[in-house]
Amino acid sequence: MEKRFMVFAGNYGSGKTEISLNMALRAAEKGQTTLCDMDVVNPYFRSAESGKMLKEHGVKLIAPPFANTTVDVPALSAEVHAAFESDYAIFDAGGDPVGAIALGRYHEYFEAVRGALKVYYVVNARRPFQSEADEALVLLDQIQKNARLPVDALINNTNLAGETTVDDLLYGELMCGKITEETGIPVAFAAGSPNVLRAYQETGYRGDVLELTFYTRLEWME
To answer: How far is the C-alpha of 57 from the C-alpha of 33, rounded, in Å?
Structure first.
């Protein structure tokens, strides 16, 4: 089996964690899959429910057993190294340039699998620090430098949680278009709920889509 590795980076609230979860669960249907939460400052995978759900679907979760402490990234070293032995490994990067440094610590490992690696920058144009193209470009540049990895593609995941409409994805499309124009980085796909994605396709969008099942949204977000 040919191995596949995916990194999802983006600002807090971009939806990279939701996408990482969905991609990991899909990959687990094809082969041995590991999901690495690389955010050592504000980990998302802290609930027993998420861990149990992943385990039930055959996904190995590697996550920091700490949050908001002075423990440094190397505490994850042994487990993160093991992820590169999986058929599929998904890395949920820290949600800011500082968090991306964790990826940079494993530069040699990512370089060794570069041919099988895809690095995605998740765009939610309805979130602070990504609502304007200039802001998104600055963050993109900082993440690439700190992660020591070039971004291969963009994901339009523009949303307002349960209030999302097709207009949000259309706004995100414009934003991603500006980023592509400046960097040459293409859009891989648009992500969202099935209903919103269908409405988006009815506007004439012909690109790829990723229908999301939402695992991390809190009740107040709906």
So the answer is: 10
147: Cβ–Cβ under 8 A, 6 or more apart, which residues?
7, 9, 93, 100, 101, 103, 104, 119
Instruction: Please name the residue that has the structure tokens 């570069």.
Output: 114
Stated as kind and residue range, the H or E segment containing 49 is: helix 48-56
Closest by alpha carbon to 6, among 75, 96, 88? 88
Give the sign of the dihedral formed by CA 19, CA 126, CA 152, CA 40.
Answer: negative
H-helix or E-strand spanning residue 143: helix 133-147
d(CA 92, CA 212): 16
Asked if 125 and 134 count as a contact pair (C-beta separation under 8 A), the reply is: no
Which domains occur in the chain, in start order?
A: 4-221 (3.40.50.300)
The partner residues of 170 in beta bridges, in order of sequence, read: none
Cβ partners under 8 Å of residue 88, min gap 6: 3, 4, 5, 6, 24, 27, 28, 30, 31, 32, 33, 34
Amino acid identity, position 160: L
Q: Which two tokens stand for residue 52?
A: 């149990």
pTM for the whole thing?
0.91
- 42-81, pLDDT tens digit by residue? 655 554 457 888 999 999 998 876 543 544 444 565 789 9
Higher per-residue confidence, 21 vs 71 = 21
